[in-house]
RNA sequence: CGGGGCGUAGCUCAGCCCGGCUAGAGCGCUUGUUUUGGGAGCAAGAAGUCGGAGGUUCGAAUCCUCUCGCCCCGACCA
């Protein structure tokens, strides 16, 4: 490709809309342009990278026996009502205004529909079906360029089995394929156990890339024993508190202007492990009081597992109405008509301090068994940095990360509601057992750039690079230089080398070098007077900045060796 | 959906508080010319309904109301 007649719009300045490195560079290097919030066009250079990523994904999916589909993005809403997911997705799903269609946010229902209509027998299983296509989700807040878009490319695959061992095998195949995909893409990633959220099912793992700037997920990891888990489900071994031998009589005490656990601990000279914080949620419009030890943070994801229905933080104004006190003074003693749940860490403890449901008063010497009617205890706290690991007691780390891929064992949830069954060996109708496995294609690109760039631009590795070689002619008014560069260009093209050739006239060398570094193709070939007169060409490696001189006649061999190495 | 910020030339921004000349700068773009190894010099030029609508005023980029868009934090989110 010759830049003189190509669309390669680079930017010297950083558009204000971009905050994180990958977004800035994708805009500056002419890979993408925004159409609207969370909606991006891939320009020719960016699309080349996207296609390379897709090809790697495709090859690895095909290797594990995957078969590629092309599925409709426009779906009749009825099929989504069968699984009750119109409601589950809520505002996240795009609805077509003048027809009863939706824009598909994912494709379990469509896959399940095809399976139901066409698969009859266990003999036809297992199947792995995948697609690499655009998905639509009305993200309430798109951000970080292509990292969280309303329209984005996703590889999703679905495994179909009718026995559990089959599902396990399909799941493991995907796990291995994903490791290969992300390694081939040159990413440093790690794997954690995760919550399956609105997808349904139980077992699930996420493939994450550490990123302080663009990360939206938090992973809890142990560097000693390799325990790794999304914070949504992570557990730890916090210090255990024992019940004291004697439960003293409860007593209301005056605690003027004490609102927080820190203030209370200071005021009473009491360790936080003897203070219990009360937080209130609304579950199906009814208040639920949740007791946490000290400053422990409630984990909503964990809480959701124990409470059915929508959970939501309660408005401050409602608190006075229900409890007769404000936020900092609530407690579980003498509460009627409010369900109480407590974190496992507090189980059956005594000698505790809680709010008195009366502003500026707390109650001391509470015995949770004697003085409260707690419905149940459960692990609902959020793990904190440096707490001991559940397996090996080493201090845990918390890492901010971007989610690249997620694999789930879905089970029979969709097959059951859509009545997708096959006959098993005994001639019995059994529901198809599904697995679901996603990869965010644009996220691979953005994560790669997050990990591979410097102040001058992107540093592609050859597998994802939009071109193999960036050819630059420096002295454009010298016909000999232009001819030499043109010959190199043609020779490389004839040998299937992808070359981008900066043949622009009347542009200073500096501009060409800056653009080349910004785009970040691994090898730059620089054709200039000073070297051509000796029959030489300069070569610069983008990653190391290293330069060397080659004989013109050796270039082809050198480049081909480099590409195929 | 709550909180905050921003919207002026293709890009980055000044001007707005405190209304008043023909709305500015740098970069980019066009033409000419000189340059040609790290985003060039000189000369000339094109480019804007100041996001949109309404209002106040003799007069609005500037003040008021509404509205649309973008970014950030939170909520939410496979």
Structure explained in plain terms:
By secondary structure, the chain is of the alpha+beta class. It has three domains: 32-223 and 398-449, Bira Bifunctional Protein, Domain 2 (BirA Bifunctional Protein, domain 2); 251-378, YbaK/aminoacyl-tRNA synthetase-associated domain (YbaK protein, Alpha-Beta Complex), CATH 3.90.960; 465-564, Rossmann fold (3-Layer(aba) Sandwich). It has 16 helices and 31 strands. Strands 3, 7, 8, 9, 10, 11, 12, 21 and 24 form a nine-stranded mixed beta sheet that branches. Strands 16-14-15-17-20 form a five-stranded mixed beta sheet, covered by helices on one side. β1 and β2 (39-42) form a beta hairpin. α2 packs antiparallel against α6 (164-184) and α2 (44-63) packs across α12. The longest helix is centred in the first third of the chain and has 21 residues, at 164-184. The radius of gyration is 30 Å and the shape is globular. The model has no long low-confidence stretch (mean pLDDT 92). The structure holds one RNA strand of 78 nucleotides.
- Write down the domain tally: 3
Secondary structure: number of strands: 31
The coarse silhouette is: globular
CATH architecture of the largest domain: 2-Layer Sandwich
Kindly provide the name of the CATH class of the largest domain.
Alpha Beta
- Fold-level CATH name of the largest domain: BirA Bifunctional Protein, domain 2
- Kindly provide the radius of gyration, computed on alpha-carbon positions and rounded to a whole number of angstroms: 30 Å
Mean pLDDT: 92
* SS-derived structural category: alpha+beta
Full CATH superfamily name of the largest domain: Bira Bifunctional Protein, Domain 2
Provide the low-confidence segments as ranges.
Answer: none
> Distance between termini?
23 Å
| Helical fraction | 25-40%
Beta-strand content: 25-35%
Number of helices: 16
Outline the biggest β-sheet.
9 strands, mixed
